[in-house]
Structure formats: structure tokens, C-alpha cells
Amino acid sequence: MTPEEFEHWSRKAADWGASYRASLADRPVRAQTAPGEIYRQIGAEPPETGEAMAAILADFERIILPGMTHWQHPRFFAYFPANAAPVSVVAEYLVTAMAAQCMLWQTSPAATELETRMMEWLRDAVGLPPDFAGVIQDSASSATLAAVLVMRERALGWEGNRQGLPGGARLRVYSSDQVHTSIDRAIWVSGIGQENLVKLPGDPVSGAMDAAALDAAIRADLAAGYRPAGVIASVGGTSTGATDDVAAVVRVAHAHGLYVHVDAAWAGSAMICPEFRPLWAGAEAADSIVFNPHKWLGASFDCSAHFIRDPSALVRTLAIQPEYLKTHGQDGILNYSEWSVPLGRRFRALKLWFLLRFHGLECLRAMIRNHVRWSQSLAERLRSGGGWEIVTEPMLSLFTFRRTGASDADTIALLKRINDDGCIYLTQTRVQGAIAIRFQAGSWAMTGADIDIAFNAILDAAGETP
């Protein structure tokens, strides 16, 4: 591609992106295609000779676009958001154009030093103390894996990487039964093993882990010859927003010398609003914390903020320095690849810099406050309308509901009717053994009017008159 062609098609792509964003509200939220439909339209063999960009772009719109679920849609109420504010998209274009591999300070000093400053900005914005240092991971899954690896190494006297796990006392990690499955996966990948993730029953109402039960479980494991390694606390669990009493969990864990990691992947972004910080009171005493600006702050995926009280423990666990990765003649530099499982690193800090400078914290706070208020208002409208049950009360902008007395089959059938219509997109979960429908407000493009649309769509799918 010549420089002139690159300029032409870059402009075309930017124009397409602007048009796409402008038309999102008129599209069905979820892809309307059948399984295999896209696959069958794509050639079975790669082309031997190059094709025209015009033809490729036309096929993108004809084949690919109909099979996309529109995560930036203003009525995407499923899962959690994966927001990409327009300014973040612009920054990502610059990152992609430069295509730097930012694994070491010397491979792009600006990337390292901007990341250091952006993590300080985020730390201060959510009210964490200055003794936390931060690194941008690709996802909360990676941050949690890194934390579990640190738990493992501390518990094994820093010999696990060298000696492996066989032959020693079985390590134990503790959490509630409401944590995200990324915790299970971290336990698998770390070699600790699923049987050694001790999941304590969450409170029937709040989903929170009982600190006294945690203490009893640790003491029982010590008596049985196990080696407790750490605790993972949840703030804003994926299913219903289950949130542990972090301060109580930290007190118990630290009394036993255990490492505490706080998974606030979704809810952590809300802590830029001081009134929501009581939800994670005690997090300031934890050993590490993760939340995702790519969920609720508008930084495009991937961008996960991982804060660590003792970075040296993380580096001791993950750093490896062959000669070709050493930086000679420079002292006191940071190589963030030593803070992450992957060696390769994208320039993720740039989109945070653009986002925070362009919008400012007050704009982001207003967005989050609106989402919380709108979600709570929808819960109240359903509750007051009769025939609806609020299964779990709003935790920030997340709540669950179903028709009063509905069976699991009835609830799934209702959810299917809602989603097949294409106006809004919701997902299900299981609460105390029964299916409920999740509603979570978080789209960057959402307005108050979208709550009215959601309310009417839910009632219409249930055969009620809005």
C-alpha cells in the first residue's frame, strides 16, 4: 500500500467509523445471524493474489457487519459495558499507526513514562493511597493471574518458579462463591488447582463472604496441613454485583499473613465518585486491586488498571532478564513487561491520557451517576408496576428481575423474546438456584430516554401494555 493509498483508506475507515457510531441507535443491538452463516460466506482458501481495498471493505459491510453485536449501542444492557469513547478510538488509531512494542523503557520511553503517570492519575481519582503503584494489564484476568502467582510464590518462599509445585503442602486460596470465573482460571493456570480454591458461600442477600467463615476455613486448613496463600475479595461481582466487606476480609487475611487481591473489575471505575467508595472500604489496605477502565470509564478494550502495594513482589515473581532484554547504562528505569505475564505490551496509556484530558473526571463522574440513577429508576418502575419481582436490588447500575412466580423456562422464554426483538440486549443469571434476568446500565452513548425504551421493550415482550 502506497503512502497515498494509506491516507485514502485511513480517511475512509475514519468516515465509516463516524457513520457507524451515528447510526448505532437504529441497529438491532445483538447480531441477528444464524450459527455458521458468516463462516459460509467467507472463502475456503486464502487468495493467491491481492484484492482491491474497495472490494474488501464492501465485503466487510456485506458479510461481517450483520454478524456483529454492537457493544457501543446505547441500549446494550447485557454483561458489563466495554465502552470505547470516541476520543479513545482516535487515540487507538495513533497507537495502531505507530505500532510500537512497548515491552521495555528503551523500546519506547514515552509509553513507559506516560503509563506511570496515568496510573498515578487513576490511583488518585479513585481515592487510593500513594503507596500503591500501578501497571496497565490487558484484562482483569491477567491482573488476577499475576496476583495469584505472587500469592503462590510468597507461600512457597519464592521457590515455586524454580522447583514447581509437586511434593510440597497443598496451597489454598479463598474467595466467595460469587467471584468471576477468571479467578478459577487463574487457579488452574498457576498450578494451584481447582480443589484448592476454597469458595465460601456468599450471603443470600448481598452475596458477601462471611469474614468469620473465612477465618474458620483458614484455621481448619492450617490444622489439616495445608498452606494458605491468599484471599480474593469481590467488589461488584458479575452475576448480581456481590460485594465483600473488604475491610473485614483484609483483617482476617492479614492476621494469617495472607495476600489479599481485590477484584473490582467493573465496579472499581465508579470509585471516581466519592459517594460510592464505601462499597470498597478497606481496599486501601489490600495488597493488590484491579479494575477495568475499558468497562465503565470509556477507554477502549484492552485497558485494565492493576494496583500493587509492593511491586517488588510482583517483579520477583514475573521478571526474567535475558541479555537481549537488559537496558545498559540506565538506572532506576521501569520495564513494565516485568510486571505482566506477557512480554509484549501495547501502548495502552495513550488512550487514557486522551480520555482523561478530553473529558475530565467530572464528565466521567456524571456519566456513572446517570447510569446508576437510571438503572435504579427502571428497577422501581418494574417493582411498582405489579407482576414483577426485583430479585436482587441495584448494586450501582446492576439489578436482576423476573416475572413474579415465573419458572426458569418462562424466564428464559421472556429473555429470548426481548433479545430477538433487537431493541435492547439483556442476559440471564442464576440467583439462589433460579434464573433471573440481569439489567446493567453502562453504555457510553446511553441517555435517559433509553430507560423508557427498555421499560417498554420488557413490558411488550411480556405481553403487557407499556
The helix-and-strand class reads alpha/beta
Please give the oligomerization state of what you see.
single chain
Which architecture of one domain does the CATH hierarchy give at level 2? 3-Layer(aba) Sandwich
What would the principal axes of the Cα set say about the shape? globular
Average pLDDT metric: 92
- Report helical residue fraction: 40-55%
Portion in strands:
5-15%
Low-pLDDT sequence parts: none
CATH fold-type name of one domain:
Aspartate Aminotransferase, domain 2
Q: So how many helices?
A: 14
The first-to-last residue Cα distance is 54 Å
Key attributes of the depicted protein:
466 residues, alpha/beta, Aspartate Aminotransferase, domain 2, 7-stranded mixed beta sheet, 14 helices
Topology, element by element:
Layout: H1 3-23, H2 53-64, H3 86-98, H4 109-125, E1 133-137, H5 140-155, H6 160-163, E2 171-176, H7 181-189, E3 197-200, H8 211-223, E4 227-234, H9 246-255, E5 259-263, E6 288-291, H10 293-296, E7 304-308, H11 311-318, H12 349-385, E8 388-395, E9 398-403, H13 408-421, E10 427-431, E11 434-440, H14 448-461
Parallel strand pairs: 2-3, 2-4, 4-5, 5-6
Antiparallel strand pairs: 1-7, 6-7, 8-9, 9-11, 10-11
Helix pairs in contact: 3-12, 4-12, 5-7, 5-11, 8-9, 12-14, 13-14
Structure description:
The protein has 466 residues and is of the alpha/beta class. It has a domain at 101-346: 3-Layer(aba) Sandwich (Aspartate Aminotransferase, domain 2), CATH 3.40.640. The chain has helices at 3-23, 53-64, 86-98, 109-125, 140-155, 160-163, 181-189, 211-223, 246-255, 293-296, 311-318, 349-385, 408-421, 448-461, and strands at 133-137, 171-176, 197-200, 227-234, 259-263, 288-291, 304-308, 388-395, 398-403, 427-431, 434-440. It has a 7-stranded mixed sheet, sandwiched between helices. The protein is globular, with a radius of gyration of 24 Å.
